[in-house]
Design a protein that fits this description.
about 230 residues, alpha/beta, Rossmann fold, 6-stranded parallel β-sheet, 6 strands, globular
């Protein structure tokens, strides 16, 4: 079994390292998908829409789907990317995942109200990031680092803010939803993910804010393993 991790806003091919390192000790392979304009693909132009990003990821993975059973994991923006990737997998008659894990994102999609984060000036944007809990204070205070990362994160926020949901209903697809108890959405919004599968979704709460996925990685890995065992 291989788990393919789809990036959250500002993420790269190393964003899920706490989870992937622990999974490797459990004999579970993982692959962190990369997007243009960051990490090892820093010289490529940034993408600013979820469909473009999902197509890029599909092109990375389509040659790997036949190699082994696999699962998909997407946190926040990665959850939106996962749904679009599932649509591409379905349209291209590629092998479907055995399980899908969506994290840190409600299934009810609403257009954001202004001011849009992608259009904020630097000071306001960085204050919003601090409130969001996405970056530690020591990084937010480093001008050189933030000047580098700000365009990347803003491009991702633009993709999220202009996201249009797609209609997809997949048969026999197990879906698990992870969410933080202090995140900015409710259980009703989370349960809206039921729209993508005819199987009853599983929801699991973890104490924490939006990036609980990195703080509670040991418990999340335990749950991933539990769900994978159920597939046997």
């Amino acid at each position: 079994m291989t788990i393919y991790f789809l990036p959250f806003a500002g993420g790269s091919e190393i964003s899920y390292v706490p989870l992937t390192k622990l999974l490797s000790t459990k004999q579970i392979e993982s692959y962190q998908c990369s997007l243009p304009g960051r990490g090892k693909r820093i010289k490529e132009p940034l993408l600013e829409s979820v469909p473009e990003m999902a197509e890029d990821i599909f092109n990375q993975l389509k040659g790997l789907f036949n190699n082994d059973d696999y699962a998909l994991f997407g946190h926040s923006m990665g959850a939106l990317l996962t749904v679009h990737l599932l649509s591409l997998i379905d349209k291209n008659n590629a092998p479907m995942p055995k399980h899908v894990f969506l994290s840190g994102r409600g299934g009810e999609i609403k257009m954001p109200e202004p001011p849009l984060k992608s259009e904020m000036d630097s000071d306001t944007f960085r204050a919003a990031l601090k409130a969001f809990g996405g970056l530690p204070d020591e990084i937010l205070k480093e001008e050189a680092i933030m000047s580098f990362f700000e365009p990347i994160i803003k491009a991702d926020f633009k993709a999220i803010e202009h996201y249009l949901p797609i209609d997809i209903m997949l048969k026999g697809l197990p879906v698990t939803i992870y969410y933080g108890t202090e995140d900015d959405f409710n259980l009703k919004q989370i349960e809206c993910w039921q729209r993508i599968t005819d199987m009853k979704i599983t929801t699991r709460a973890f104490a924490g804010r939006h990036f609980f996925v990195l703080d509670k990685y040991e418990a999340i890995v335990d749950d991933i393993l539990f769900e994978i065992i159920q597939l046997a």
